[in-house]
Amino acid sequence: MTNRTRILLVVLVAFASAIGGVFVGRQLIPVKEPVETELHALLHRQLDLDSQQLAAIENIEERFAMRRRALELEMRADNARLAAAIRAEQGYGPRVDSAVDHSHQVMGELQKATLEHIFEMRAVLRPDQAQRFDEAVTRALTATER
Questions:
Q1: Pfam families, per this entry (predicted)?
Q2: CA distance 112 to 48
Q3: Exposed (0-12), middle (13-18) or buried (19+): which is 102, by Cβ within 10 Å?
Q4: Within 10 Å of residue 96's Cβ, how many Cβ atoms?
Q5: Any idea what the Cα angle at residue 47 is, between residues 53 and 43, rounded to 5°?
Q6: In tens digits, what is the pLDDT along the chain, a chain of 146 residues?
Q7: Can you give the pLDDT at residue 19?
Q8: What confidence score (pLDDT) does residue 91 get?
Q9: What's residue 6's pLDDT?
Q10: Which of 31, 42, 36 is nearest to 146 (CA)?
Q11: 134 Cβ contact list (under 8 Å, min separation 6)
Q12: Taken in order 63, 116, 47, 52, is the CA torsion positive or negative?
């Protein structure tokens, strides 16, 4: 067996092992659904929304998706500014401090926008639906395992 053949064989075995490891890991380690997914499933599968409610919630979700995407892009830009500040200052200086503060401000805006989104959807629900929705939100916010 030549050196080249051995290297190719090692690479193929490593690749197959990596794929196998990913497959086994996905089977053994359950992935917890994000809060949004849980609420989305509750809204669309368990609350028996009427057509008006469904249309209103879909509209709310579309608007929020745009707002969330804009804030996520802003956070990504904040990370780039933070990286540039760290590179320039080589320590925790005023530029780093300012970049961190701005990043936290945008994170707070996203959290507030998310809560506004949740309350906007809740307003579309009947009282019995709202109670189940509130219970799901409370469970999601107080869950100890993430």
A1: Metal_resist
A2: 27
A3: middle
A4: 20
A5: 70
A6: 777 777 777 666 676 677 766 666 666 665 554 555 677 777 777 888 889 998 998 899 899 999 999 999 998 998 888 888 888 888 888 988 888 889 889 889 998 998 899 899 999 999 999 998 888 888 877 876 64
A7: 75
A8: 81
A9: 75
A10: 31
A11: 122
A12: negative
DSSP string, 17-74: HHHHHHHHHHHHSPPPPPHHHHHHHIIIIIS---HHHHHHHHHHHHHHHHHHHHHHHH
Compute the distance between CA of residue 133 and CA of residue 101 in angstroms, rounded to an integer.
Answer: 33
In one-letter notation, the amino acid at residue 146 is: R
Contacts for 68 with CB less than 8 Å, ≥ 6 apart: 110, 113, 114
Pick from 127, 6, 113, 4: nearest CA to 61 = 113
The distance from CA 136 to its chain's CA centroid, rounded to whole angstroms, is: 17
CA distance 110 to 135: 22
Q: Residue 75 in 3-state DSSP?
A: helix
Q: For residue 113, what pLDDT is reported?
A: 92
Q: What is the DSSP letter of 123?
A: T
Phi and psi angles of residue 104, each rounded to the nearest 5 degrees, phi first? -65, -35
